[in-house]
Amino acid sequence: MKTNLLIRNIDPDLLAALAKRAGQHGRSVEEEHLQILRQALQRPPRPDPQHFIAQARALRAALPSIVFNADDIDDAKRAGQK
């Protein structure tokens, strides 16, 4: 069942930007608004940053510990310039 959605107190600049975008897409303001809502609600949820941190820590723990000193870094730079 379809229904209506009323949005009150829209900033005039926001409405103008919506109207401009609608015109660029050949849609009415209402259809553009619906399209924006559809796209926003169909996006997958943002991943939890803690998940990425845990993955990075696990990867770092699995790699051998290598310490570079300034001479090592300078040598690598020179080798890359050849």
Report the major sheet.
none
| Count of individual beta strands | 0
The SSE order reads: HHHH
Q: Radius of gyration, rounded?
A: 26 Å
Q: Give the N-terminus to C-terminus distance in angstroms.
A: 68 Å
Determine the mean pLDDT: 91
* Beta-strand percentage range: under 5%
Count of discrete domains: 1
Structural class: mainly alpha
Number of helices: 4
What's the overall geometry?
Answer: elongated
Spans with pLDDT under 50 lasting ≥5 residues?
A: none
Percent of residues in helices: 55-70%
Task: Report on the architecture of this protein.
One of its GO terms (molecular function) is DNA binding. Keywords: DNA-binding. It comes from Duganella levis. With 82 residues, this protein is an all-alpha fold. It has one domain. 66% of the residues lie in helices and 0% in strands. The protein is built from 4 helices and no strands. It has helices at 12-25, 29-42, 49-62, 70-81. Helix 1 (12-25) packs across helix 2 (29-42). The longest helix has 14 residues, at 12-25. The chain is elongated. The mean pLDDT is 91.
